Amino acid sequence: MDGALAFGAVIVLAILFSLPTLWLVLIAFKKESEWVTYPIQILPATPEVYNFYFAVTMFPYLKYFWNSVVLSTAYTVLVVFSSAAAGFGFARHPGAPGRSFLFGLVMGMMMVPWLVTVVPQYIVFSKLGLLNSYWPWVLWGISGSPFNAFLLHLFFSGIPRDLDDAAEVDGCGRFRLFWQIYLPNSLPVVAASSIFAFTWVWGDWLFPKLFLHDQITTLAVKLQTAYVDPYNQPLITITMAGVMLYVLPMIVVFFVAQRLIIQGVVTTGLKG
Predict the structure, then answer these.
(1) Position 12 in a domain
(2) Does any domain span residue 68?
(3) Residues in Cβ contact with 156 at an 8 Å cutoff, skipping those fewer than 6 apart
(4) Ramachandran region of residue 242, left (φ > 0), alpha (ψ -120 to 50) or beta?
(5) What whole-number distance in Å separates Cα of residue 165 and Cα of residue 152?
(6) Average pLDDT per 10 consecutive residues for the chain, totaling 272 residues
(7) Is omega for the bond preceding 97 within 30 degrees of 0, making it cis?
(8) Within-domain flag for 195
(9) Residue span of the structural domain in which 104 resides
(10) How far apart are CA 31 and CA 200, in angstroms?
């Protein structure tokens, strides 16, 4: 009985959480005249598929889509590698000088609200002449992510040290141990970290809006003002179609990789 109640509660919550997405999909298939009618018409009278055509032709949609892909991919590759290297160092070198202080510093950075750092970072990048370029994301990627470093540190800490000893007997150096043994055996948590990093950049609006000019900005920023009529009034149904196309790749990636995500998060809490 308790299991049935819990399952019913999960279904109700799932429906409630999916309502905004469902409403977005319904609006994307409506005509603009149906959107402004009262009383509200829940289902479109006839699905308007041309909204999606206009969504990708009213402005260079694929260009800004490609900007988002390049920026998200570059950041993800850099931040996962640097975070994995940091996690490996913290996990496999507990006696290194200053290790406790540095690890505490990394953990402390997880407690700092990211909005607090927006203005200082803008000033720094402006002084360095790095605005209107992708260099801020490159530098963020090289510096690593405290959350990803912590996640990978937990996973690496659970790998038996006998593996290190056997590799060193065979003449394996530290970098080779990290690159050829630890990373290939950590694919679930590496995949989970990659998806977290990719979605952060893909869904970010604030930093591209502040740091990038119009030609190299991301799709998230461009969607804000792309769909308007000749009187500069927003075209809601076409906007929703563009937003639906924007979030669709992330939904597909999540459903394809959800097993790796769950496995990666769960295994970071296991020892041995």
Answers:
(1) no
(2) yes
(3) 87, 88, 91, 92, 182, 186
(4) alpha
(5) 20
(6) 75 85 86 76 81 91 93 94 91 80 85 86 92 94 90 84 75 80 83 88 92 91 86 86 88 74 55 42
(7) no
(8) yes
(9) 49-267
(10) 32
pTM reported for the whole predicted model: 0.84
User: How many domains are contained in the chain?
Assistant: 1
Residue 219 lies in a domain: yes
Q: Counting every residue, how long is the chain?
A: 272
Alpha-carbon distances, residue 98 vs 26, 170, 175, 210 (angstroms): 56, 29, 20, 36
- CA-wise closest residue to 148 among 118, 186, 184: 186
d(C-alpha 198, C-alpha 153), whole Å: 20
pLDDT of residue 271: 44
Burial of 157 (0-12, 13-18, 19+ CB in 10 A): middle
Look at residue 265 in the predicted model and tell me its pLDDT.
55
**Residue 272: its pLDDT value, please?**
41
CATH number for the domain including 166?
1.10.3720.10
Neighbour-count burial of 54, counting CB atoms closer than 10 A to its CB (0-12 exposed, 13-18 middle, 19+ buried): middle
Question: What was the pLDDT predicted at 269?
Answer: 46
Alpha-carbon span 64 to 221, nearest angstrom: 9
